[in-house]
Structure formats: C-alpha cells, structure tokens
Please model this.
Amino acid sequence: MAQELSEKEILKMEVEQLKKEVKNPRALISKTGKEIKDYVEAEAGNDPLLKGIPEDKNPFKEKGGCMIS
Model:
C-alpha cells in the first residue's frame, strides 16, 4: 500500500497521526513509575514466574515417564 502512495500523501498521513498523538494525555514518569512499582509489588504473590505453579495445576508437567522393558 505504501508503494501506491506518493511521498506527499505519506507525509500527510504522518502529520495527521502526530496530530492525534499530541492530544493524548501525558503523565509524569515520577508518578506513573511509582504506580507501576506498587502494582507489581501488590501482584507479586499471584505471579507464577515468581512463586511457581503448583504441581497439580501445571499443564506442562509430564504425565508419565518412559518405560523400557
């Protein structure tokens, strides 16, 4: 699609996109960083990467071993 558009049309689209993005509300990183940190710390107890998955609920646990007779 980009090959079908002229350079002027592409630049016009970029300007329109930037006009939309400039209207997005902004927040200070000092505030949002603290909020993210608090959220991560609050949810750490539910994170399976930190506390592990119980053996009975692990869908990737091997069901049985290999038997050679």
